[in-house]
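Components:
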Amino acid sequence: MKILLMGNPNVGKSVIFSRLTGVHVVASNYPGTTVEFTKGTLKFEGEKVELIDVPGTYSLEPICEAEQVATEMVKDGDLIINVLDVTNLERNLYLTFQLLALNKPMVIALNMWDDAKHRGINIDLERLEKLLGIPVIPTVAVTGEGIKDLFTRLKEAKAPSCPAYAKDERWLRIGEIIDKVQCVTHRHHTLMERFEDASIQPLFGILLFLATLTISFQIIRFIGEGLIGYVFNPFFENIYAPLMMKLSAALGSGGFFHDILVGKLVNGSIDFGQSFGLITTGFYVPLAMVLPYVFSFYLVLGFLEDAGYLPRLAVLIDNVMHKLGLHGAAIIPMVLGLGCNVPGALSTRILESKREKFIAATIMAIGVPCMAQTAMIIGLVGSYGASYLAIVFGTLFIVWFGLGFILNKIIKGESPEIFIEIPHYRIPNAGALAKKLWMRLVGFLLEAIPFVLLGVLLVNILYTIGFVELVSEITAPIVTVLWGLPESAISALMVGFLRKDVAVGMLRPLNLVAKQAVIGSTVLAVYFPCMATFAVLIKELGIKDTFKSAVIMMATALFIGTFLNLIL
Amino acid sequence: MISLVDLEINQTGTVVKVGGGAGLMHRLEILGIREGKKITKLSSMIMRGPIVVKVNGCQVAVGRGMAKRIMVEVD
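Structure:
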């Protein structure tokens, strides 16, 4: 048996899903957080049934890929939990009537019940139940209120015979129902509502954006640096290093296994940045260099997501994105890409056309470095001075914008206009925020550590069998002549196909001059996506478009590396 | 009858006509922009950016091209 959670975007389906199944999924305050379905199980009348968190849709006539997924899934459902945002009943009921016409057993979760009270919206629940002919349960998913009721009343789900109304008639019916069950008491604007109205005014909007950007950046830096300087580095230096030294001595301070496991000793001791052993650098890179920044980034992002800031950013930045053939909502994949390119690429599904998806995914994979990579670039290039960091990130930004601009000119087709619902601001719930952060960190570690270890292992093996030298000889003209990098940088470029953070880390022991560090980091960011992102791109764009995208990436890297080498 | 673009900020009007293709009209309709609905213009982003309106107590951002095709009668 399959139970579907369905409803408009951003009504809280994912939160209800987590509450019912205990399976945690990322939930935020903007339409289109869920673009793929998630499955979980729950016990219903003594048997194990499947609960599916379906992407949000406004109707059963899809307008984007995420909605397409929803429309196709509805056929397989045996029971539907229709989640409604009680503060906007009219719009939500449109989908409800379409679902009712399918004649499947259904219940309604009237979510954001607390919000309705604050907004002076009163709903006559009994009357609504009678009019619709199915159970209606008020819920506040974020706090868990009403979830138990929802669960116990699932067995009362009914399939009332509801005709498939024509559109106008449907609106008429909805209007009648709302007149009968809803009563809105007028009250003064709250401070939050004033803030909501101010955020979309041009001047205040821009000031708010600049403030948000500055504060976010400072918090990310402060927490990231703090964790590295006061927690992770002391741990690795004072506790882990002596342990590794003992192991090194036990293994005879050298030899094949020693070098793979502990790495090469630098001046007789372990240097976590340079030794490149599996359990030295292999742990140090993801845990001590990357994790602190991933933590602080997702902390800030989670807050902005749950507060409902991203759609407002989309409106503010819309005309800039139009220059790239996209519209404002395309900023969401970019912001997510700053954390990790994988969810960034997935969220291009909220865009309407194939052309938009291609442009967005391509410029994101090229010009938006993920947090793991950013952290490593800060560690490497930052040691030469902040101005060099500015060159790397400035170049990436110019590449991002310039490439989008060019693609918009050469790819035929128009860019659709923005059309987005702006959710109410909400004060993020601390528990929900912590849960989301935890999920993302676990996700990062589960993906990063195996790949980092594999990368480190691969480097060692490729060196031993002489593969690196072979590739070096072939690619030397590009790497050394055009880009001005030492031949030894080639192994880093090879590992970059696997994972970018380790690859940047591999530039470290090469004693590069500032210019080379800048070129190396920039080329690594641009030339190809990491393996995980590449796999998602194939899934999302198809093989042909991914191939085109990859050609663009390599050409860009060739050009930008040479250009930087000439002007720096 | 004027378009949403020409409506003053903070002015409220009633939608009298929505032009454009069936797909576009359908999308607008579901978010509450259809004939007979009351709509208040909240802001207009600089440099021909989107227009934000309030309808059914919710904010909706609409691109300028779409906004041109939404005709309202000022109350």
